[in-house]
């Protein structure tokens, strides 16, 4: 059956003007959805969930394990995990999303055993899970790779459940930090995670777990202490996911790149500090309010140098978007990818629009100042897709972006939100 492929069509070179609301944080909601599997008493009502594909997928995965999920509205899910059991989830679902590996931590935490097919997800350089496995081994789990008819699986087993321990990560990993937190909540004894990821979504997960009766302290710092509780002590709760700092940052860059003037509402300015500071360095004016930021460009945009780092540094998930902004800024910018091995694959797509970018390993040199021109390009992954949208909004002429499904994984109603800001953007069927 021919897939009904859709593409975005943008007629660019129009400033974005107006105001938009930011949704819940995708990368914070995913750990919290899998964490709900730990709760055996009562239901978890999760609010402010972004209406994006990855959320639908994660809820489908936990349902396949026996959880009951009720979507009471576009942004709310009520989860009853009392009937969940450990079994291999459908490989077709797991392979679509890297965050499926949070099942390992949640199942280990609740049942003392776990099995998940190797996860999929955005492909920019190897996405190993060795740090996750090391974290589980610190907690006394035996982790092996097994093969079933659905492919290569990771299996973790323990003798009677995980045991609290000091878990030291040589390098920061968001996913591994989350997975160890999930496994350690009901461990026998205390777990201390050293060199933990400090992202806001790690803090959001800790806050959610503590509303359910867990004892997680220090999230947001490099040291997280988890005092294991009996799983019978965990209970359901109602929790609203924090706003998405990457969605907010994406629209901030889009407003700047199109020399627009946009009020971006429902944000936590503290989470945007690194992005805002870098934008101001480039000549963007940022006015911070309690839960919104106003973005405009009073004068010229100028080049800058940047390196992406784990939080509180500039997020790697903002790297492609900043690259586009550097293309339309005056001067030569240097952009270093400090987290992933190969996150510049999208540059070829920008070159098709006239961008002048040299890539050497983890360093891109961007010669800005010349206009971008509309072209037919592809979204290679979620954030690269968002970058192509920003490029299309700046470019002279028409840009067509295929593989729109990548963008829909993490940006709710992107067409409607951009249209509300004056963009000429449509979603059409490929054959149209
Ligand atoms: C999370 O991925 C996010 N995904 C990514 O966002 C984000 O780019 C990344 O954190 C960094 O902030 C979700 O939250 C679902 P890591 P994750 O473990 O957990 C290496 C998006 O667009 N590493 O912090 O996979 C890894 O290869 C996505 O929303 C190992 O070597 O990121 C990378 O180079 C894209 N071994 C670095 O560490 C491991 O066991 C950081 O990865 C784990 C990671």
Task: Tell me about this structure.
The protein has 432 residues and is an alpha+beta fold. The chain has 14 helices and 23 strands. The chain has a 4-stranded mixed β-sheet, covered by helices on one side. A 4-stranded mixed β-sheet has the order 2-14-16-15, covered by helices on one side. Helix 1 packs parallel to helix 2. The protein is elongated and about 65 Å long. The mean pLDDT is 95. The site of ligand EPZ has 25 residues, from helix 1, helix 5, helix 6 and helix 12.
List the helices and strands and how they pair.
Layout: E1 6-11, E2 17-21, H1 26-35, E3 44-47, H2 53-64, E4 68-73, E5 76-80, H3 91-94, H4 102-111, E6 113-117, H5 130-138, E7 142-148, E8 151-157, E9 166-168, H6 174-184, E10 190-194, H7 200-211, E11 216-217, E12 223-227, E13 238-240, H8 245-257, E14 261-265, H9 273-281, E15 285-288, E16 292-296, E17 305-307, H10 319-327, E18 332-336, H11 347-351, E19 357-360, E20 363-367, E21 376-378, H12 382-394, E22 398-402, H13 404-408, H14 414-420, E23 424-429
Parallel strand pairs: 2-14, 3-13, 9-10, 17-18, 21-22
Antiparallel strand pairs: 1-22, 1-23, 3-5, 4-5, 6-8, 7-8, 10-12, 11-12, 14-16, 15-16, 18-20, 19-20
Helix pairs in contact: 1-2, 1-4, 1-7, 4-6, 5-6, 8-10, 8-12, 10-12
The chain binds ligand EPZ.
Please state the CA-atom Rg, rounded to the nearest Å. 22 Å
Structural category: alpha+beta
Overall 3D shape: elongated
Strand order of the largest sheet: 21-22-1-23
Task: Report the span from N to C terminus.
Answer: 18 Å
